[in-house]
Amino acid sequence: MSLIDAIAHPEVAVASAVAALRAGRPVVLPTETVYGVAALPGDPGAVEELFERKGRPGERLVAVLVADLTAARRIAVVDATFEALAASFWPGPLTIVAQRRSEADLHLGDRSSTVGVRCPDHDLVRAILAEVGPMATTSANRSGQPTPMTAVEAADALGGDLLVLDGGRCEGSPSTVVDLTTDPARVLRPGAVRHAALLGVGLELGPDGAAADR
DSSP class of residue 19? Predict the structure, then answer.
């Protein structure tokens, strides 16, 4: 395991992460929610390693982190509702599921026509995204297990032998996941952005979404 103090040495952390990702290796990194493990979504081998380390079934797709809305438009079909949510909650803990652009070369698990996209509220991660583009990212834990709060625990959970960016304790709530591919939209996973906040920007949610976030 190669551990870098990302608080004391952010520039080193960014450069090291960029090099590792471009070399086809997953990287453990902090976000404003929980520790994540990331790989470049255009690299099927790196994404496969990410799934293997987590013990995650292929049908459970991983999300994609982006630097901004412009980057999101390159991989997802962004409509007015998507833009309204991004304007209100990005950067921040909201993952938006939309139709995937057919030309986007993404390996996120079993093939799907949709993609979950989020712009994180974390300067270090956005600096990495600015260099490498979108990253396939999921929580840094074994599938079904709690997400560790420290970098070392996260790396150990995934089997070690990884580049690890230590950003201190990550104790935030997971991102809320909203599916815009249904009418009305649904909350697939309740999280840091609450139901009332989503309704406050005019999002219409079906009964399943309302129940999920109570």
Answer: H
**Is-above-0.90 flag for pTM?**
yes
Angstrom distance (rounded) from CA 129 to CA 183: 31
The pLDDT assigned to 211 comes to 35
Domain that holds residue 123: 2-212
CA distances from 109 to 36, 42, 85, 90, 211 (A): 17, 12, 25, 25, 28
d(CA 206, CA 186): 6
Q: Let me know how many helices (H) and strands (E) the chain has, helices first.
A: 8, 10
β 114-118/27-29 pair status = unpaired
Q: Determine the Cα–Cα distance for residues 135 and 39; give it in Å rounded to an integer.
A: 6
Into how many domains does the chain fold? 1
Pair 27, 154: CB distance under 8 Å? no
CATH of the domain at 80: 3.90.870.10
Q: Is the dihedral of CA 53, 54, 55, 61 positive or negative?
A: negative
